[in-house]
Design a protein that fits this description.
Blueprint: H1 6-10, H2 17-40, E1 44-55, E2 58-67, E3 73-81, E4 87-95, E5 101-109, E6 116-125
């Protein structure tokens, strides 16, 4: 007895999904490579180095900024917090054009005793 063949009985349809899958794979792979390379080196990046309590009314914050374009003006928002994580002080630090890598130490005035400080955000400005 001959073997039952489903392709003889029902007919065989060509596989149309393979070219679509390959196209999506190529486009998706290219986008993934682009996204990884684009976001691995942002325009502005900041790093907190240290902070210390100077007094009940001041915190000292040391941080570094790396920017791709040395002519870019950067404004960083620095904040101080108390034990309950309430904001006790906030200052905006304008960093002029100059070097690609810069380290700064800034005093943040506070309204009460603070326990830590940090960088809220850094952004490019048009001044």
């Amino acid at each position: 007895m001959d073997e039952l063949s489903f392709s003889d009985r029902y007919g065989q349809r060509p596989a149309r999904w393979k070219p679509l899958a390959m196209t999506l794979l190529i486009i998706g792979g290219a986008w993934l490579v682009w996204a990884g390379l684009h976001h691995s080196r942002p325009e502005i990046s900041s790093s907190l180095i240290s902070f210390s309590v100077v007094s009940d009314r001041q915190m000292s914050l040391r941080y570094s900024i790396d920017r791709r374009d040395a002519n870019l003006l950067v404004t960083c928002t620095l904040v101080a917090h108390d034990f309950d994580k309430n904001v006790t002080g906030e200052i905006e630090d304008l960093i002029p054009a100059g070097s690609v890598h810069i380290e700064r130490t800034i005093l943040i005035p506070t309204r009460m005793a603070s326990v830590n400080a940090g960088i809220s955000r850094c952004r490019a400005t048009n001044q």
